[in-house]
Amino acid sequence: MKGFALFLIIISACFLLANIMVNDHGYVLIAYDGMTFESSLWGLLLLVVISLGLIWLTVISFRILLGAFSFIYPLSSGARKAKARKLFDRGLAEFTKGHWRKAERLLGQAAKSGESPLINYLAAARAAHEAGNYEASAHWLRQADSKAPGAEMAIGITQAQLQLASNHLEQALATLKHLHKKYPRHAYILKMLKQVYIRLNDWQSLEKLLPKLRKQKVVKDDEYHQLEQQAFKALFEQAYSYGRNRLSTEEKVKPADDIWSGLSHNQRRDPAILYRYCDCLVRLGAEEKAELLLRENLNHCFSEPLIRLYGKTPGRDLKKQLLFAESLLNQRTNDPELLLALGRLALRNELWGKAKEYLEASLRLRKSVDVYNELGHLLGHLDEFETSSRYFQEGLLLAADSATNLPRIYKQ
Description:
It is a single chain. The protein is built from 21 helices and 2 strands. It is mainly alpha-helical. It has a two-stranded antiparallel ribbon. Helix 4 (100-113) packs antiparallel against helix 5 (118-130), helix 8 packs antiparallel against helix 9 (187-199) and helix 20 packs antiparallel against helix 21. The longest helix is centred in the N-terminal third of the chain and has 32 residues, at 41-72. The chain is elongated and about 150 Å long.
């Protein structure tokens, strides 16, 4: 209904306009610098409409011709951008499919066509690396550096990642050290350095890096403690390897002493680190030095490995050593590991009765292969062979965890 009404209004308007044009043609005179132009009003309006239509057609035709020409040979910045985006999208699609060589070619073309080539060059470098073409990968990284000189960090991190992935650890270390020097607080660079040091077994460098890892919150406390223990375990093993072939005891323990002297106060109070150092000293023949250090620290950093090592380590004064261990019983009356250490120290002092009491007390609290073994040797020394044999058997069963029930053999 509304459409029909609108149609009637348009028809009425056309009849009204035609009536006006027939009854009054109008007159227009334009004069300028001796030239005149005369026309009816409606003729002038028709000329204007025709002129505007011709201009519109000319613009449309020009745009069509320009679009066709740009399709063949793109010249405008918009066309270049569109082409670069298309190449990047195709290259990224091929990259996700694992078509590395095709992805490298498309991404390289996109980098040359686009205004922001960095991401394309880096992606092309990764594609070339995945294809095993390391020379091409290095070439794309150099291109990225020349086209985007302000992106040293992004290029360097990508280079280090590719070097790590191809197991070129020394090259990755050199790249990361250069980056770390310029960006010492960058968390990801620190994290990659940590990985390189671990893979290179460079525990000394890792130990020096650990405080920075904690400060920049690259590792949590649990991981920090684990890495610290791993590093010092390896460092003291290296110190043992370096020192065991030297002549004098002083020369043997020097590598371990150098590590110990470089530790902070808190690190020296760490029971695990203290154990590694003292255990290294004992294996290198410096038992008295290890016993003295253990005696000085056991009161404030007691641990089972430390007291076990103390019970096995003969000091300069065996009686004084036993008295000190007995003083620890005031706070740890029912500690089976301490009682085992006391039993061993009593044995070393040839106090057979006291040694037996300590060992049996330890055994009542916790069954242990070491306690069974010590009791077996002690009772054998005291000519109690039957009991000694029983302790040895029980220790063997405990060590084996379970005995195999052999099938019974029947004779015909």
